Amino acid sequence: MSAIAPMMAHGGDDVDFSLVPSLTQAQTNAMHELLRIAPVIDDLGRLFRDAGHELYLVGGSVRDALLGSLGHDLDFTTSASPDQTHDLLRRFTPSTWDIGRDFGTIGALKRADDQEWQIEITTFRADIYRSESRKPEVAFGDTIDGDLVRRDFTVNAMAVDVTTRTFVDPYGGLGDLADGVLRTPSTPEHSFSDDPLRMMRAARFASRLGFQVAPEVVRAMTEMAERIQIVSAERIQAELSGLLLTDSPRVGLDLLVSTGIADLILPELPALQLELDEHARHKDVYQHSLTVLDQAIELEKARGHAPDLVNRLAALLHDIGKPATRRFEGPKVTFHHHDIVGAKLATKRLKALNYPTQVVKSVAKLIELHLRFHGYSDGAWTDAAVRRYVRDAGDELERLHMLTRADCTTRNRQRATRLRRAYEELEWRIDELASQEELAALRPHLDGTEIMAVLGIGPGRVVGQAYAFLLEHRTEHGPVAHDEAVELLRRWWADRGER
Questions:
Q1: SS3 for 172?
Q2: Comparing C-alpha atoms, which of 27, 25, 12, 16 is closest to residue 158?
Q3: How many CB atoms neighbour CB 177 within 10 A?
Q4: Is the separation of the CB atoms in 177 and 155 below 8 Å?
Q5: What is the pLDDT of residue 4?
Q6: Cα(330)–Cα(318) distance, rounded to whole angstroms?
C-alpha cells in the first residue's frame, strides 16, 4: 500500500474510500460516517485551510472510526502553532481552553446537531526524553509524517487530511489494525527511548483492543524495562489506571509482569508469584489475584456499576500481604494477618504512585476488611456482629460485597456454593436490619451537642469517649428510645466518676 492513498471522489466533497483497497466495507462505512460530521470537521478544516494551515484528524479518532467505535472526542494535529490554533478555535466556538498549550495542545467544545464534540488540536510534535529527564522535551515538528512516526503504535499513526480528504498511513497501521497487532512506527527501541511510557501503553492497548503485541515490541519492553523509571509517578499512575479500567486488564498486567516492568512500578504484583511448596499446599496467589480482578469486573457489570478504579485496585492488591506473612506450620501454609500487612503495603505503594488520598484510604480499608466475612461463613453472627460489619465498612460496603464475592475462586463446587449462599444470607440480613434500623447511617443515639447538654460539659475528649460508648451500644443492641439513651449516658458518666 502506498504511504499516502488519495481518496477524493469525482462527484463531490466526500472521500472515495474505495480507492484504498485495504479497507473493508465496514471500515469504509465507518469512515464515511466519521466524515459526515460536517459542522465539526468540514467547518474546522475550512477555517484552517483558509488560514494557510494543514489539519488532520489523527490517532485514536481514526483508529476508533475504523473499528466502528468513534466517540465524541476528536483528535487533530496541525501545522499551526499553539497560538495560531487557539486564535482559530476561538473563531470556531466560544468554549476553548489552553491548559495543554505548553505541549502544543489546544482544546475546545463544539455543539452541533444536538451533540457535543470535544476537540483537541495539537501542533505537529517531535518530542523526546533525555536519559536523565523525567519529563519529555517538547519540540514541534513541521510534517505529518514526522508527527506520525513519533506516535506510539502504527494503529494510532494514521490520519485523514481534513481539507483534501487524503488518507495518510505511512507506517502500515491499517494492515496492523486488520491483523490485530501492536507495532511501533519506528523501531521499538527508538520509540521507547523517546517515551518509555509507551511500554505501559502497549499493555493498555493489548487489553483494551484485544490485540497481540508484536514479538519485537515485547523484546524491547523486556530489554528496556528499567527506562520506565525516568517517567513521573503521575504519568505511570494514569497509565496503570487506564489499564485497570479496561474490560480485560489481565492481558496487560501479565505483559507488564512478564517483561519486568511491573517489578519497577508495582513490585507487589509480581511478588505474588510465590513458589509452590513441594506438596502444593497453597494456590498460585498471583493467578488467584488476577482471577479475583476478573470476577470483580463481572460483578461490577452484574450489579449495574460503572468501571470502578477502587474496586479493581482492591481486587488486584487484596493479597499483597501474603509474601511477607507466609509461614509453614507443619502440613499447613499460613498467611496470618496478611490483610493488615496488605493494607499497609497498598497504602505505601499507592501513595508512591500519587493516587488521590481517598482512593488510597478506600483501597486500604477494603484490603483490611476482605477476610472479615469468613468468620460469618464459619458460624452464625449475631445482629450485633452484622451491625459491626456494616459500621466498619462504612461507605465501602458495596465494594466490600463485590470484593468478598470475587475472592471466592475455589474449584470445589460445594465449597463455592456454600460461600455464595452464606454471603447472600449476610447481604439479606444487612438489608433486613437496614430496613428496620437505618443501618446504612449507623450513628449513636445522641449527637455531640446532646451529649454535652446531658452531661453539662463543653467540647473535649470526653465527648468523643461518650460518643464511642453510645455507638458501641447502638451496634451491640440496636436502636433505643431517646429517654433510654439519655439514661444510658448518665449511668456511663456516673460509673466513670466512681472509677
A1: coil
A2: 27
A3: 24
A4: yes
A5: 34
A6: 26
- Cell match 446531658: residue? 454
Q: Which of 320, 325, 260 is nearest to 293 (CA)?
A: 320
Q: DSSP character for 107?
A: E
User: Is the dihedral angle over the CA atoms 372, 374, 375, 381 positive or is it negative?
Assistant: positive
Angle made by CA atoms 274, 265, 344, in degrees to the nearest 5: 65
Per-residue model confidence (pLDDT) at position 125: 83
DSSP assignments along 299-342, one per residue? HHHHTTPPP-HHHHHHHHHTTTTHHHH-EEETTEEE-TTHHHHH
The pLDDT score that the predictor gives to residue 392 is 87
Would you give the distance in Å from CA 224 to the centre of its chain?
Answer: 24
Spell out the alpha helix ranges (H) of 150-212: 173-179, 188-194, 197-209
Reduce the DSSP state of residue 137 to 3 states and report it.
Answer: strand
Neighbours of 121 (CB within 10 A): 28
- At 252, which amino acid appears? G
> At what angle are helices 397-406 and 383-393 packed, to 10 degrees?
100
Q: Give the pLDDT of residue 310.
A: 98
Q: Are 348 and 285 in contact (CB under 8 A)?
A: no
Q: What does the block give as the cell for 449?
A: 451537642
Biggest CA–CA distance in the chain, Å, is 99
**Res 442: pLDDT:** 57
DSSP single-letter state for residue 140: B
Q: Which letter, b or e, does each residue of 423-437 get, where b requires 16 or more Cβ atoms within 10 Å of its Cβ?
A: beebeebbeebbeeb
- Residues lower than pLDDT 50 in the chain: 1-16, 18-19, 38, 277-280, 439-440, 499
- State the CB neighbour count (10 A cutoff) for residue 70: 19
For 71-119, write each residue's pLDDT tens digit: 788 999 999 999 999 999 999 999 999 888 888 899 999 887 778 889 9
Does residue 101 contact residue 119 with C-beta atoms inside 8 Å?
Answer: no
Output the CA torsion 93→94→97→101 (10° steps).
Answer: 60
What the block records as the C-alpha cell of 280 is: 502444593
